[in-house]
Specification:
heterotrimer, A alpha/beta (about 525), B mainly alpha (about 300), C mainly alpha (about 325), B: about 300 residues, mainly alpha, MetI-like fold, 13 helices, about 0% strand, C: about 325 residues, 2 domains, two-stranded antiparallel sheet, 2 strands, disordered N terminus
């Protein structure tokens, strides 16, 4: 009895050991990215806004990777209005989170300063993660460091979204005016509307931005003036030292340091004075109009122009056509260099607007990054999460475009790509984009259109200046909107007064800190 | 003796009544006018909201808000009810409202009555103890930690009831109603040998119907319109209450509108203004239907002849 | 005989007096337990509620410490650094501190006075209506505005107050008067906000008063009628005095919030229109703007603590006065 038992025991143990050896061996050759096991892993992922029918995409993903990643996704979608607060609460409660969407307008900078996210530097440019290597170049990663660390994955497909005015082409043609190529012609267009169609508001500007970047002037050497912490920073001609840190309303003493350049805040005051002259073309009481209402005014045919980024073109045009079937749109970029599609017109920090991060409390950073790696390993993987099931939710048009099927499926997948998959190497463009938009999108996608900002990769750390920032913010917000809407009679005086008031509550403390941090950043960069 | 008294009284009453008749008529006119004017001011905005909810979005943008839809459309309501979760949300909300109101009333009565008894020595201190919480609050962070982390109530239907179960304000209101009950009632019952609980249940409650109905109404409204705790603590769609769903529909539509811009995919004419109106109607609607029926409880509870001699 | 039912102070106070004497003679513990035993049923009824308040209202008060912390989400309440009163600085250093404080208190006082007056007035009127269905329908209608969110109301405001096209300005122009520049003239807003608040809250506010009036002893009114009192006299001599405790109590509650601006209403209606800040900017809207980009929880908790604290002081004072004047209306 004993003997037989011993025999069986030996047999079993031999089997066990040999099978584990075999398994080890198989694992080694199976995949080079796994760190030793294909144990099932569940990632808790958090997105913001609205996501439709993601279950089928996740199911498809889990099916395709059952033998490789063996990863399940537990997706929670939080309404965008609540996302910022909920993430704060969940972080404080130490809740289980593996992959979260975050952005500079959400909690990204706060959490970065508090070391709430895992440093992901080791995962980029790492041969063990080929997908990530392909999608995220060294420059891209370096430009998107937050406070010096890669604590989040940048998610963007283009480095700018050109700003300008949407113009009613049909109205312009009706008045016999040629294409609008500069600001004088724009004003002529407004005048024409006033003369011929008095019920139409020439330009609807309701909302915080007001006239936004209209009629701004460019700096001589745009690389010498950078923005940080709410200030303008003038760099030396060799871009290595900080010459001046200034803002609108500063005393002549401070502005004197900009001597020799066109680089003064006079440009800003000039712009605000223009706004004052333009305010007669805007809707009445524009300062009390909310931005969706200004948008509505335009897309219902009652306004002649409206501020928008180029990405809004198709949506606005289609909505406009419902009210005014004969309407046509064209785009007037604010920046004359961009308008003329010149090379090197756009100064960019190559910074993404949206990120994905892994909370420091998560123990599954490896698995999460492997999941991200998988997404960027191939176009097919990427398209699954960005667009859905091919031929059901979308149809491929060539290698880099897509179109929507004629009849949408009942369970159409809809997902905000900027929260997971946007990437200039992979994101497909909608083939039905109109020519007007396409020419700008192509220009945006062309690397020659850009020049690399000196401050790429810099983040201003304001965690020690909270009181000063709260105080100066409160003051600034009292004048910002009236200035942007052109209802301030004397912009220079208003800005000077605001500057004086702000100086009493810490403006210069912030200024000194900005100078210190920017200089330190430049020193570190140039020491290499 | 009694009969003569009654006849005399009746004659006197008739005389006085004639004198006051004219005064009454003038008063009545004033009363009815004021009420009608005030109600006009209250109902017109609601009618505009109602009309806008049934108006085609485009027509709404072009023609503005009118008392009658310029172009009829049920699109907004279709969107609201297209969420399959809607039916479930009604179930959740009805449950939390009915059960929640009941539980709240039990606890509130249990607190309000003792605090209305004058001979309770520590009622001042306990009242202060409760009142203090109306002024001071620790904010969202500690409450979230308490409910979600330490009490582990996330995704549990009771999280929609228990953390908001007691309202100090409602409790003090109810105490105020109890205050107006003459203490002789309780005292004479005590002499007969009843204890406080019996007094509460058999004597106090039956004559406090207007107060109970009022506070019950306040709690009911609170539960019906609640969505904040659902936003914080519920992520399972089966447990979403009605108001949360309604709020979300609105926000998600706005989000879709933003998405349309970013991806160049036109998402059609999203009815966001008419949608806001429709959600308002759906929120207010049930209240208007319920309130007239609750009002009958306000006319009962008369104390005629409760204490004689 | 007409008897005031609210005159409970005349209840034989022998018990109280004798208890006091007895307490003086024995040590505190003994009388405490004696009291608990004497009213054991009542205290037993109170216990569940007290426990609830301890758990859900007092335990979270721990979070008030955030007002003095440089709050770090990772370190949490128990790990964040204490920084004294630094979180309060941005509020007290502001040159607008006086303006926003004045606006907050001034508007709240107006709201309390007008709100109470109109609600009581309407309640008295509603009670006088005899026609059952007219009464029910009008009461239901009167509470409608309470349920309209301010964002929806703000959408209609433009139709009323726009320059040139607004209903109000059209009316003014048609009778030859000057228009009111609602969007740039701050002086019209205190009145406008008060009117809006009345419109929204008066109907709903009548509910409490009506329910209270219904509970009054009918015999008194009958006796008064026999004595020849007119309806007006009945109201002023019977109803109003008996309503006093309720009115005072509700007022005390409102006083507790006197430093807290009605953010929901003001932000929805005024929005980000700096031209109107001189009369409409309250503490809450100011703080919202200051912390919009920062989102610092320590600072927002600090301001909330400050507002609660001042409100508490005010309530202590007013409650003491109320206790002397109308004991039933005091909260504690």
């Amino acid at each position: 009895m004993k003997k037989r038992f011993a025999k069986i025991a030996m047999l079993l143990s031999v089997m066990l050991i040999s099978s584990s050896l075999v398994a080890c061996g198989t694992k080694k050759t199976e995949t080079t990215t796994a760190t030793g096991s294909t144990e099932p892993v569940t990632l808790k992922v958090f997105f913001s806004g609205e996501v439709k029918n993601m279950d089928k995409v996740v199911a498809e993903f889990e099916k395709r990777t059952k033998d490789t990643l063996n990863t399940k996704l537990d997706v929670t979608v939080i309404p965008s209005a609540d996302y910022k607060e909920k993430l704060k609460l969940q972080m404080t409660a130490g809740e289980d989170m593996d992959l979260v969407f975050d952005a500079s307008f959400l909690n990204l900078n706060t959490f970065a300063a508090q070391d709430a996210y895992t440093d992901l530097s080791t995962y980029f440019n790492n041969d063990k993660y080929p997908g990530l290597k392909k999608a995220f170049s060294t420059d891209y990663v370096a430009a998107n460091k937050i406070l010096g660390k890669s604590i989040a994955i940048p998610i963007t497909s283009s480095y700018t979204d050109i700003a300008g005015l949407m113009i009613r082409k049909d109205l312009r043609e009706k008045y016999g005016l040629g294409p609008i190529t500069n600001d004088e012609e724009l004003v002529k267009y407004f005048e024409a509307i006033k003369a011929n169609d008095p019920t139409i508001t020439p330009i609807s500007i309701g909302g915080a931005r007001g006239f936004y970047q209209l009629m701004g002037e460019n700096y001589e050497d745009p690389l010498r003036t950078v923005k940080a912490g709410g200030f303008n920073v003038l760099l030396s001609p060799d871009y290595k030292t900080v010459t001046n840190v200034y803002t609108a309303g500063d005393s002549d003493e401070i502005l004197a340091k900009n001597a020799g350049t066109k680089d003064t805040t006079d440009l800003l005051i000039k712009q605000y004075t223009q706004f004052a002259a333009l305010s007669k073309y805007a809707e009445k009481d524009s300062i009390s109009v909310a931005s969706p209402d200004a948008y509505q005014l335009f897309v219902s045919g009652k306004a002649g122009a409206h501020d928008s980024e180029i990405s809004g073109f198709t949506g606005m045009r289609d909505t406009l056509k419902k009210s005014v079937p004969t309407a046509e749109l064209e785009f007037y970029a604010y920046n004359p260099l961009i308008r003329n599609m010149e090379k090197g017109a756009i100064v960019s920090e190559y910074k993404a607007w949206n990120f994905l991060a892994i909370p420091a409390s998560s123990k599954k950073a490896d698995s999460a990054m492997k999941f991200m790696d998988w997404i960027f390993q191939s176009q097919a993987n990427h398209d699954l999460f960005e667009l859905g099931i091919e031929n059901e939710d979308w149809i491929a048009v060539g290698d880099d475009q897509f179109k929507l099927p004629d009849t949408a499926p009942a369970n159409q997948y809809s997902f905000p790509g900027f929260e997971l998959t946007w990437n200039s190497n992979y994101t497909r463009t909608n083939s039905s984009v109109p020519a007007e938009v396409k020419k700008y999108l192509d220009y945006q996608a062309n690397p020659d259109s850009f020049i690399y900002s000196e401050l790429a990769g810099f983040t201003f750390d304001n965690s020690s200046l909270k009181t000063e920032i709260a105080s100066t913010d409160a003051l600034y917000q009292s004048i910002y909107k009236p200035l942007q809407h052109g209802i301030v009679a004397n912009p220079a005086e208003t800005l000077k007064k605001n500057n004086a008031d702000s100086s009493k509550v810490g403006l210069n403390t912030i200024r000194a800190e900005v100078k210190k941090q920017v200089q330190a950043f430049l020193d570190k960069k140039n020491a290499k | 003796m009694e009969q003569i008294k009654t006849v005399k009284e009746t004659k006197k009453i008739k005389k006085i009544k004639k004198k006051l008749h004219k005064q009454d008529m003038i008063l009545d006119i004033i009363i009815y006018s004021v009420v009608i004017i005030f109600c006009y001011l209250c109902i017109v905005p609601f009618l505009v909201v109602l009309s806008a909810s049934f108006t085609d979005e485009l027509a709404l943008v072009q023609n503005g808000y009118r008392l009658w839809p310029s172009k009829f459309s049920t699109e907004a309501y279709k969107i609201v009810f297209s969420t399959d979760k809607m039916f479930n949300a009604y179930k959740v909300t009805i449950f939390t409202t009915v059960v929640g109101t009941f539980i709240s009333m039990v606890f509130t009565v249990a607190m309000a009555y003792p605090l209305s008894v004058k001979s309770l020595k520590y009622r001042g201190q306990i009242s202060l103890f409760v009142y203090f919480t109306m002024l001071f609050g620790g904010g969202l962070v500690p409450s979230y930690l308490l409910v979600s982390k330490y009490l582990n109530m996330k995704n549990n239907i009771w999280v929609l009831i228990i953390p908001t179960m007691l309202s100090a304000w409602n409790m003090f209101m109810l105490r105020n109603f109890f205050n107006s009950i003459p203490p002789d009632l309780a005292e004479s019952a005590k002499i007969d040998g009843a204890n406080d609980v019996t007094i509460l249940l058999k004597i106090i409650l039956p004559i406090s119907v207007p107060g109970i109905a009022t506070i019950g109404l306040f709690y009911g409204l609170g539960y019906w319109n609640a969505w904040f705790n659902a936003m914080l603590y519920i992520s399972k769609s089966e447990l979403y209450p009605l108001q949360y769903l309604i709020m979300n529909i609105l926000r998600n539509i706005q989000f879709m509108a933003e998405m349309a811009d970013k991806t160049g995919m036109s998402v059609g004419n999203l009815p966001s203004n008419s949608l806001k109106m429709a959600t308002t109607v759906l929120t207010i609607g049930p209240m208007i239907f319920v309130y007239p029926f609750i009002q009958k409880y306000f006319t009962s509870g008369m104390m005629v002849g409760a204490i004689k001699g | 005989m007409a008897r005031k039912t609210s005159d409970n102070s005349k209840v034989p106070s022998n018990d109280k007096a004798s208890n006091k004497i007895k307490a003086k003679g024995k040590n505190k513990d003994n009388s405490f337990l004696k009291e608990l035993w004497k009213n054991k049923f009542l205290y037993a009824l109170l216990v569940p509620g007290i426990i609830w308040f301890v758990v859900f209202a007092y335990v979270p008060l721990v979070g008030l410490i955030m007002a003095f912390q440089d709050f770090n989400f990772v370190k949490g309440i128990f790990g964040s650094k204490l920084i004294g009163f630094k979180n309060f600085e941005f509020l007290f250093n502001s040159k607008n501190l006086w303006v926003i404080t004045w606006n907050t208190v001034y508007l709240n006082v107006l709201f309390i006075i007008t709100g109470t007056t109109v609600a009581v007035f309407l309640a008295l009127i509603f009670v006088e209506i005899n026609n059952k269905w007219f009464k029910r329908i009008t009461q239901s209608i009167s509470i409608l505005p309470h349920f309209m969110s301010w964002t929806v109301v703000a959408m209609f405001m433009t139709a009323f107050i726009s320059t040139d096209t607004g209903i109000i300005n059209k009316m003014l122009m048609s009778v030859g008067l000057n228009q009111i520049a609602f969007y740039s003239d701050p002086s019209v807003w205190p009145v406008s906000l008060v009117l809006l608040k009345i419109w929204q809250g008066a109907g709903f506010g009548t509910i409490i008063y009506i329910a209270t009036i219904i509970g009054f002893d009918k015999e008194m009114y009958e006796a008064a009628q026999i004595d020849g009192a007119s309806r007006l006299q009945q109201v002023s001599l019977l109803t109003l005095p008996m309503l006093r405790p309720t009115i005072i109590m509700l007022t005390i509650f409102s006083v507790g919030g006197i430093f807290k601006g009605d953010f929901g209403m003001i932000y929805a209606i005024i929005g980000d229109n700096p031209l109107l800040y001189p009369t409409t900017d309250v503490i809450d809207t100011f703080v919202y703007r200051s912390l919009r980009t920062l989102g610092d929880m320590g600072m927002s908790t600090a301001v909330g603590l400050y507002q609660s604290f001042i409100g508490f002081l005010m309530v202590l004072i007013v409650n003491k006065i109320a206790k002397a004047v109308e004991p039933d209306s005091a909260i504690f």
